[in-house]
Amino acid sequence: MGSAPLYPDRPRREQLLDLLFPPLCVGCRRVGRWICDRCWPHVEWLDPADRTRRRAGSPLESITAVTNFTGSAREAVHALKYEGHHAISGLMGRLMAEAVSDTDAIVVHAALHRSRRRERGYDQSAMLADVIASAGRLRRDNALLRTRRTEQQASLDRDRRADNVRGAFMARQDLTGKTIILVDDVSTTGATLEAAAEALRAAGAARVRGLVFARAT
Ligand SMILES: [Zn+2]
Prior knowledge:
The two termini are about 15 Å apart. The protein is α/β, with parallel strands linked by helices and about 220 residues long. The chain has one domain: Rossmann fold (3-Layer(aba) Sandwich), CATH 3.40.50. It has helices at about 10-20, 70-80, 90-95, 115-120, 125-135, 160-165, 190-200, and strands spanning about 50-55, 60-70, 105-110, 140, 145, 170, 180-185, 205-215. Helix 3 (about 90-95) packs across helix 5. The site of zinc ion has 7 residues, from loops.
């Protein structure tokens, strides 16, 4: 656990939206910020040196996270994923963008299946990927298709997660020689990112680096 990053600056458009629809702190429900000044230092932010974990013998080179999946960080993911608070993707995505050092990578999200996206009304990892690409001035591509509906990983034990998502993704385009930043909200076993990376590598990607907001341990 490391020192807290600075609260990232918000673009003017978001500042105006904040005036109309003030954010509520996901930790304590105080009005003003998505994670307030009091809750911010208690988030288990990861030190830059501890953010990235290598994955040996995997189509996925590494997984980088900015925080552990606990406390207010967990609440932030739930607010985005299950409570429809789309605007929090701005905060989360800008923190994730700060963890990217590549300048010529393509940002791709681990897409939901279309039936799941229809139910939820949006794809939370697509929103994060949009913010990361824009904040990091990186190319953004919707290069992955989830070809079948999978069970929610959170509902499965660790052993069944890899089976659940294996072969569930397909690349929409040729990615020969490209470096991909593969985005999702949370990583637990890394099974979803791994299955997505498999499809990206099959389409020719030279390397795939996972990037998530939170890492569950
Ligand atoms: Zn708070």
